[in-house]
Amino acid sequence: MSDTTTDAVRLLAGVAQQSERVAMDSELGTPVIRLGLITTLYFRNGHTLEMKRRVEACFSRFYDAFKPKLKWQLFKRMRRLSASGFASTRRQVVESLPDEQFIWSIASATQAEVAMYSLFVMNTPQGQADNDRSCLKMVLPWSCLTEPDGLKNYEAWIRYLSSEVQAEHGFGGLACVLPCDGHQYLPWEYRLAQDYIGLMVDPGPHIESLRLLDRIKGVSWYTVLGEGFVRQLGGSDRLRGEMSAHSDIVFHSYRNGLI
After folding, report:
1. Residue 1: pLDDT band by 50, 70, 90 thresholds?
2. What is the torsion angle, in degrees rounded to the nearest 10, for the CA atoms of residue 176, residue 181, residue 183 and residue 184?
3. Cβ pair 58, 165 in contact under 8 A
4. Which of 88, 229, 231, 237 is the most buried (most CB within 10 A)?
5. Helical axes 150-164 vs 49-66, angle rounded to 10°
6. φ, ψ for residue 170, nearest 5 deg
7. 37 DSSP β-pair partners
8. Which residue range(s) make up the domain with 188?
């Protein structure tokens, strides 16, 4: 067993022990905080036809992979997810005008509940393309990592999504998953992130996009760096060389940079 695999096994054993401590329910017994595995990516050109087709491809792949878990769709309004409704939304997204902004998500729960399976996108209209970024976020249960080839499958997902939307930057890792409407639980999320080193705080990535035009949010379990950021760090060869002494740091290439 490689050192990397051993480290992953050790990590997952620790996560399993801590996940119940992170979980929180409301007074009515409704789950309001759960430990999840998230991927958040920021990208350009969300107003273009090409990028809308790429986003549609991401949603189609996610839908096919997790269809039994997905129950709800948000596009203009929340509604039950159906095959016909999903097909209609795919068409509307691709055919939307360059100056139209849209929010689209498919999820295992409503916005009032914790959705452990979800894919979310908010694009940037043409008029704001120079001063904002589009955002794509995927949520999965952390327990996916414990399945056969779970880590390998997750890495395939983050590489695929990063390549498909030509991510400028982003990250993947463990985070608290809250209901989309659960703003009252944000202080708890922040407190848990302080108590458990390594948890990302990511309740509203589309809001943060305004301040992440020329910088990344931070380093996470997986850190996505587009070509522009890789150049700022001296290029791929230099970056790999400087990190070669750290056996726990592994590089993956994607279409627009490094993970």
Report:
1. very low
2. -100
3. yes
4. 229
5. 160
6. 165, -165
7. 140, 174
8. 3-258
**CA–CA separation, 133 and 45 (whole Å):** 8
Are 247 and 3 in contact by the 8 Å Cβ rule? The answer is yes
Tokens for 184, please give them.
């009252």
Q: Hey, what amino acid is at 174?
A: L
CA 170 to chain centre: 8
Residue range 91-133, pLDDT digits in tens: 999 999 999 999 999 999 998 889 999 999 999 999 988 888 9
**Is there a contact between 123 and 132 (Cβ–Cβ < 8 Å)?**
no
Q: How far apart are CA 61 and CA 8, in angstroms?
A: 26
Residue carrying the six token digits 């939304």: 89
How many domains are there within the chain? 1
DSSP-derived secondary structure letter, 225: E
3-state secondary structure of 111: coil
pLDDT in tens, 145-163: 989 899 999 999 999 999 9
Angle between helical axes of 49-66 and 83-95 (0-180°, round to 10): 160
Cβ of 33: how many Cβ atoms within 10 Å?
20
What token pair was written down for 239?
């970056």
